[in-house]
Amino acid sequence: MSVVGFDFGNENCVIAVAKERGIDVLLNDESNRETPAVVSFFEKQRFMGSEGAASLTMNPKSTVSQVKRLIGRKFKEVEVQDDLKLFPFEIVEGHDGGILIKVQYLGEIHEFSPVQILGMLFSHLKQIAEKSLEMPISYCVIGIPCYFTDLQRRAYLNAAAIAGLRPLRLLHDCTATALGYGIYKNDISNAGPTYVVFVDIGHCDTQVCLASFESGQMKILSHAFDRNLGGRDFDEVLFSYFAAQFKENDDIDVCTNMKASIRLRASCEKLKKVLSANAEAPLNIECLMDEKDVRGFIKREEFERLSSDLVESISVPCQKVLANSGLTVEKIHSVELVGSGSRIPAITRMLASLFKREPSRRINASECVARGCALQCAMLSPILRVREYQVQDSFPFSIGLSSDNVPICTLPNSTLFPKGQAFPSLKILALHRNNMFQMEAFYADPNELPFGIASQISSFMIGPFPVYQLEMVKVKVRVQLNLHGIVNIEAFMQIEDGAEVTNVTSENMVAKSDHSPSVEQNGAEVTNVAQKGKIFKRLEIPVSEEVYGGMTKAELSEAEKIELQLAQQDLKMERIKDKKNALESYVYEMRDKIFSKYQSFATESERNEISINLQKTEEWLYEDEPDDESENIYNQKLEDLRKLVDPIEIRYKEDEAREKARKDLLSCIADYRMNAGSLTAVERDAVIDECNKAEKWLQEKTQEQDSLPKNVDPVLWSCEIKRKAEGFDATCKYITKSLPRTDDSDHIDKPDDGELD
């Protein structure tokens, strides 16, 4: 069982693995610790990660990035429409109001949901992990933003299922960071809790949490966030500044050219990093647009002035997290600053002013979430022993529950799980029913939700009951806010043992139409319960769930099949690419050898024929791809070339092998002649006679071979000399009755038996 943590960011992903000696971050095929969250669709193949990012400027309309922004969202949301202005790929509205991404692939237009794209990226990350660990993986922990809704959390689980992953937990990003911080911290005071604020400024969002640390445990006291404020907003400030400058000075409108916009945004992101360490920075881009080179310059002071509103906005979730926790600034022991957008000096100064202390950067800003997820996976996994450490997270939204459209009032505002509720959490409700009934989960306070998010979560149909009841019976409903932050419901009923009941038959079951939610039929588990001298039976009641806006089981199964087909197509193209590369390498290698080391072993006509065929093959390789491109066509081309080159290559190799075999035979003859002096006269004469015969045979054959040019097939083969040597050695051993050899002959490897030719 693997112990892996995934940090899936809006721009980059990080994979961490827990091992006995600690947490390691895995490298991808390019030996980088971060993998771009990009999928690029080409004519016959997908490219993901670093390869996909490299295709962004060449293939922008079919290269999908920042898919995290689209997960679990509706097409008409204002924030989605704002994001569409930044995306080069096309997005359309689905039949359910969701999002579909249109790309050109396999010669036609394909539409994929954000969940499918996310599943592709998870598959890619899984491949990287399996290749690095040299073992299959399935169990993992995945980091998610704390502001993710129930629908978005389910979307992540569906995407993981498409990739063949089984998440043990979806862990909030800041919680993962706090876990990695607290479990290794040895200076926690025993006098009371240590309060630490974690500020995570990512590529597209800002998350803040306040954690309480005590010996052996941590608690998240409050979360706050701004899901539309991150490092890319500072990039956009620079983009707008230089776009206006180039329009005025160079008469080019970058905003009208997709590729130019992509290049300028990439340059602005690099420039932002330079300004974090320098007071000023230049910008130079060759052939940005209309074959014009552009140059720009900006001072950090000017950049901070342009982005002052953004810096001020980051203080809002910081103030909220303090207000929600009920703590004052004076009680905060430390402020930890992480995230890809956290390196801007103006942000550091603002946080220092707000919290009255300098923010710390002791945590790895890019890897802390993945490391925390790997730690949590190790704690949930049975294969690694991790020291006892309790992690208590809090849920950022209030959740209510209603039955048949009537709120179940356990707290004010019909709230079942209040904001800040520690989870996982379980509530058991007792209701009186005699037939099927419906329950709905919803967000109790819409003001807590990000703008444009519907308050409905999911609907649960409880029933049919396993037995008919004419009177009301007590039905207990288990409502769980699980480890992923998702609402689940189970139900059961209790009846007195011996009471007259009627079993429900298949005719009594409610028929399910194509549009009804899927029903997961639980077995009627019967448990006897003693209560006040009576025996009760506990009967499980089936619960069917409909997630508003979520994937059905049929849709998930179809998405898994599509991903399998796409993966097989990718593997097929990789094999074809390997065959093509092998053919190309063979052409270049033989072109060099045929006029150098192989030159004397080929006739002029053979060299010309091979040269012509190599040239034709090279031209064929660089022409348009064949219509029936497959492994076989490249194998056939390579085989045709080998038929021409192999005879020459054999002559060359045979020339080297023949010389070695000749020397070995002469050495063997010399050894037996040297040892003949210790034999009887009869044995000595017989051995000397065999030595003379073998030597004469070798001289005659060698003279015959030397009389021929090297560019014809040999008459004396190395294997023939080896057989002669084996037969000679066997005969001499028979004559001398295995006479021991001298030390000088120990280096000769001779078989124990054989026949003399």
TrEMBL record:
- Per its UniProt record, what SUPFAM superfamilies does this chain match? Actin-like ATPase domain, Heat shock protein 70kD (HSP70), C-terminal subdomain, Heat shock protein 70kD (HSP70), peptide-binding domain
Q: Name one Pfam family in it.
A: HSP70
Q: Which InterPro entries match?
A: ATPase_NBD, HSP70_C_sf, HSP70_peptide-bd_sf, Hsp_70_fam
**Does the UniProt entry include the keyword Transmembrane?**
no
Recall the GO molecular function terms of this protein's record: ATP binding; ATP-dependent protein folding chaperone
- Give the UniProt family note: Belongs to the heat shock protein 70 (TC 1.A.33) family. HSP110/SSE subfamily.
Spell out the protein name for this chain: Heat shock 70 kDa protein 16-like
Q: Which organism is it from?
A: Populus alba
